[in-house]
Every structure is written in C-alpha cells, then in structure tokens.
C-alpha cells in the first residue's frame, strides 16, 4: 500500500465549524469569559466529536452547537479559517473549498456580508502562509427561512471572484427535501453562481435528482444513496455530476450502515465522477490521509486509482480553467515524483 500521507490531495467538501481545533475553542471561550465543562482532551472530544456508534445525521449535527457558540466575531472566524488552511497543509492538500453558513455566525450583530468577509480574509491569510489555494462556499440551511437563505445567496454574489466560489444547501435533508428550495436557488442561477447541494445522505435519490434539475446543482454533496435508483444513477453519470463523498462521515451518519455497504468502489468502477473529502475534521476525527487509508483498507484502492480520485477533485473544483490547469500540473508532478502514474 502507498503511504497516503505523502500524496498531494484536494478537499472540496469541508465545513468550517466542524473543523475547529479543540485548543482554539479553549482560547475563544476564555476570550468570551465562558467557563467550559473542562479543557482536557477527553472532555472536549466528547463535546466536539462523534464517538462510537452515531445513530443518525441529526445526532451528528448536534455536535456543532457547542462550538458554534464561540464563532460570532470577525477575529474568531478569521482565526478558524486560517487554522483550517493550516490543517489542510499538514495533509499535503493543495486546494481546499471551505463551506460555512453565514447566518450561523450573527449572534453578536455581524451582517451576512461581514461574516463572509471575515472567513474570506482568514482563508486568504492561510493561503499566503501555507501555500494551499483556499476558497469559500456560502451555505444556506434547510431549517432557515427562505428570506435568510436568499440573503446568503445575494451576499455571496458580491464575493464571487473575491474568495467565494459557490453556494450550498445543508442541514436536515430528510425533513427538508431539496425541491422546497427551488425558488431560493433560482437566485444563484440568475446570478451565475455555481451550486453544490447536500443530497443523498439522509434521503434518497429523488433529492439528488431534484438538486440537479430544480436547484441547478453542478456537484452533489455526498450522494451515497444514488444507487437506490438506477435511472437517477444513469442520469448523474451521463451528466458527469461530481459526487463529493466523505467516507468516514458517511459511515458515521448512517448514509451507509457499514464499510462493506459503502458504494464508493462501485461508483468508481462504473465511472461516476467520485471525489474524496473530509466533511468535518474535528466532528468526524478525520483528515484526508485517514480518508484515503480507509479506501485502501476496505476497498483495495491502488495508488493509480487514488491518483484518479485526487485528479477528479481537481476537475470538479470551482476554479477557472487556468487555475485548474495549474493545480493539475502541480499535483501530477508530485505523483510523478512518487512514481505513481
């Protein structure tokens, strides 16, 4: 097996608030004058990470509330964005797209635009410091009102070309099907903003189909349950819609019940445009090296196949054609040095 820690990588599906370092939460709580239940690693990991058997996506999402209480200032948002790029660099990640819900960070009076500005600045500082190209994706929430989600898309439009590359929809997929948000995401189509939608994680293939046909998604977050409908499967394959799969998280949220039932090998072999990502570094206690190690362990992915998965991520990135070519050249050169073609 190849040492995956040495491979160049990209991460297209990575949540900001799910990837905050525990020691940073300690600092932010101290700055806010909030006493934590404990500052030791065991206590913090219990509050911030999925442990043992996670029953559902809803249980998984519950881990975000604790950290989210401390993420309502420009300095906090800039810091965690900067540190997320640093964490990506530690995994030899060459490009990262960081998604965040601006409406979740406004309890201290920030506007949606101010939240986006703070995250973009943090990502930019991280890119300059660590050499990882970093862009943001502004996320709408299924549980939020149409007015709140429209505000996110309108604000994101002002940052396209300035650090934001797309908009997203996340949250409780089973309770809020994709088709309910068609009118909201029509704004993104009118403003020519790329769209990626969480779908096929906690609900079935119809959500995936509706995300593409009714919301304008050109990428699908997760897409694990696509195989439940062969017609939708063929539709996604024909359209070459990339799937942002997050193996460790997908097992934790019960998108697939166990590794033997996880469909990534079947999707890859049948030539779906599969990409591999982390979802949430802290909540899932994962990183890109661990994700690829799981693929080797459970599905016997060979080095040249991992290379294809990484380059799938380059092809699916919300970057200009010129930036993609530059990124591809850099990654192919690193694989060549490792003797992987």
Unreliable spans are none
Biggest beta-sheet profile? 8 strands, parallel
Q: Give the overall form.
A: globular
CATH superfamily: Metal-dependent hydrolases
How would you sum up this structure, described in words?
- Helix 9 runs parallel beside helix 10.
- This protein has an 8-stranded parallel sheet with strand order 1-2-3-4-5-6-7-8.
- The chain is built from 15 helices and 8 strands.
- The chain has a single domain, classed as TIM Barrel (Alpha-Beta Barrel).
- The mean pLDDT is 95.
- It is globular, with a radius of gyration of 19 Å.
- The chain has 341 residues and is of the alpha/beta class.
Please outline the helices and strands.
Elements: E1 9-15, H1 22-32, H2 41-48, H3 57-61, H4 64-68, H5 74-90, E2 93-100, H6 112-130, E3 133-141, H7 146-157, E4 164-170, H8 182-190, E5 195-199, H9 205-213, E6 219-222, H10 230-239, E7 243-245, H11 247-252, H12 264-269, E8 274-276, H13 288-299, H14 303-316, H15 321-337
Parallel strand pairs: 1-2, 2-3, 3-4, 4-5, 5-6, 6-7, 7-8
Helix pairs in contact: 5-6, 7-8, 9-10, 14-15
